[in-house]
Amino acid sequence: MPGTVGRVPTPAGPVPGESVSDATTVVDRHPWAGTALGPPEDWDVTVRAAVEIVLASPAPMALHLGDDLLLLYNDAYAELIGDKHPQALGRPAAEGFAEVWRIPGVGDVVEHTYHTGKPFLDRAVPLPLRRDVGDLDQAVYIRACSAIRDSRGRIAGVLSVVAETNPATRQLQGLSDLAAALSGTLTLDDVARVALRYALTSFDADRVSLAVDEGGGGGWRMVRRVRGELVDEADERLPPLWRRGAADWSAPAVVSARSGRAIFVEDGQPLREIAADRHDQKVRALASVPLRASVVRGGLTVGYRTAHTWSAPERALLAASAELIGQATERARRFETQHGTAQLLQRSMLPENLPVLPRLRVAARYDPGVDGNAAGGDFYDAFVLPTGHLGVVLGDVAGHDVQAAARMGQVRAALRALALNDPRPDQVLAGLDRLVGSLGAEAGTYELFVTVVFGVIDVDREQLTLASAGHPAALLRRCPPSGPPSAEYLDVAPGAPLGVGCRPRTRTVAFTPGDTLLLFSDGVVERRRQSLSHGLARLAESVANAHSGDPRALCATATAAVPGATEDDVAVLAVEYALRPSRSARMEVPAEPTAPSRVRHWMTDQLNRWGVAESVIGAAVLCTSELTTNALLHAGTAARVEIDLSPERLLVSVADSGSRGTVTRAHTDTLSSRGRGLGLIEELSDAWGTDPTVRGSTVWFEILLPRE
């Protein structure tokens, strides 16, 4: 590069408090002598002047020097390029921005200015400069490129001046993304996740929150996110942590929701009266806007830890965002009301409790299909027969409406009545066939389609007898004393569905200690654009490779075995013939701050009495304490902790009873964070999952015991 005199001033040493990542410092210390530009003392005086102007400017500026367009930039530009600094400095621009340099409108503009000397100005160009924009579109910038000439008039480089347009203008581009994301939400929890993620990213805020009324004068609930808070995939499986308050709660989001007016604080302590922890206490600037919904009242807040002036575009963006979130909140509230009614009807026709037997462990799981508003016809049941044997059943009544659910209830009740009278599976299904035929004739329809599989387990004879009426084959997981577990579909004649002259036949197979029976509906294995054989193969493979034959774990494994969404309901029933009887205990946990501590002491004493290894006790107690805390935080009602110990594994479940109560606690900080709890469970347990219920959910984990 041509040039004769001049040098970039170099300080004698680091200035106290300076950061070696500052662009000016990096420029001073860069080994320019090893580049095509040569040492700074040989640079042209005009180029040196340009360097000094760039480094002193508060606006984002960069120099592309020499034929290689070596990068030299100031602190403002370093902030724009994020984690590319300081590696990009002193390197050819085509290398520093290799992934985007060849995109039309990026590198070609600089090269064209360097070769022709023609200036360039673009008032609205999306540049992929920042690395922390998140899921939103790239930011929009005003960019100007002009040639830098040396003292002889030759082009020595290109000066790029880049200025981000009004931040609110960039943020408005994210509204379409917000609308698209909200359109896919069903529940209020879904809306909260999307809204908080958008507000935190779009406004580059330190704290955001969403508050909604409980309806019927029952108070308010609020959920928040703070900058730097880790929310991973496991954390998203559980409901957000809602904080609850009375009808006269003084939280800014609630005040805005009640009054319908926005609140803007530029500098102060807006959350002093309702601060739950240090994150709230540090907020100095806060904007609170009502959701603008016609039925549901709510508010959205965006806060910063430093003073902040709320510009008119920002206020307009907040209002537009709140309106979209308000519309989604109303849709979610309607869905939850309809969903709750439909699922309550569905669940009311399923057994509240499954049998607890010395050698047989039973678990079931039911998940509604894509349209959670409708009640489905899938059902399961397990009950002890007069002979002492265990009857198990899983069926599917075609349809997703109240009528299908009602017919399901009739079929399930009739099946149990028939089995209590004569438990032979073929006779039970033959009687059901006559009932379904009668129901169809009564309704004047021949489209009453019902499939069902019914089995009887005889523990004394170690036998399983099954009969099927058009239902998918049952899956049997065998765990021999030596060798790996295996899974096979039982060859039971499926017969015709009920109501069309079903003539079922029975099949008796060995059911020995260590075996687990799995009954399932077709929603487990059927997927669009996938063959049924593929789904059946995936299910068998997943069950065979499961950590253990525990029925609760196998139900979770089965529902997740085939990837892809299903539009059908999913029902699974599993029965394990335990090698030895298990020991179990339960504790009712009150909704108060001391509950996790009480659970820890109770569980430690119980497992010590059972002679469990200390390493297992420590992991189990820690995980249970975290899950108990989570249940109290997100449900706010009493919980139930159950432990079940077998020779092979320890199973722990924590069930809450809803999401509408109020947890009485004095200090939020005394309760641990959910993200940490789920991380511990992932690390310390061999399997874990969640089982949804009509009111609340159950979270469980399993720890395999070391072999003696």
Describe the structure.
The chain is an alpha+beta fold. The strands form five sheets. The chain has a six-stranded antiparallel sheet with strand order 8-7-6-11-10-9, with helices on both faces. Helix 7 (188-202) packs antiparallel against helix 11, helix 12 packs antiparallel against helix 13 and helix 17 runs antiparallel to helix 18 (674-684).
Per-chain topology:
Elements (H helix, E strand, L loop, with lengths): L22 H7 L15 H12 L4 E5 L4 E4 L1 H7 L11 H4 L10 H10 L3 E7 L13 E10 L5 E10 L2 H17 L4 H15 L4 E7 L6 E7 L6 H4 L6 E3 L6 H8 L3 E3 L12 H4 L3 E6 L7 E7 L7 H37 L11 E8 L10 E7 L5 E8 L4 H20 L3 H19 L6 E9 L4 E7 L5 E4 L7 E4 L16 E5 L5 E5 L11 H13 L6 H9 L10 E8 L5 E7 L5 H15 L4 H22 L3 E7 L3 E8 L17 H11 L2 E6 L4 E8 L4
Antiparallel strand pairs: 1-2, 1-5, 3-4, 4-5, 6-7, 6-11, 7-8, 9-10, 10-11, 12-21, 13-14, 14-15, 15-16, 16-19, 17-18, 17-20, 20-21, 22-23, 23-24, 24-26, 25-26
In short, what is this structure?
The protein has 708 residues and is an alpha+beta fold.
Give the amount of beta strand, in percent.
15-25%
β-strand number: 26
- State the major sheet: 6 strands, antiparallel
Distance between the termini: 76 Å
Question: Low-confidence parts lasting 5 or more residues at pLDDT below 50?
Answer: 1-20, 131-137, 659-675
Structural class: alpha+beta
Helix content: 25-40%
- Please tell me the overall pLDDT: 82
Shape: elongated
Number of alpha- plus pi-helical segments: 18
Lateral strand order in the biggest sheet: 8-7-6-11-10-9
Alpha carbon gyration radius: 33 Å
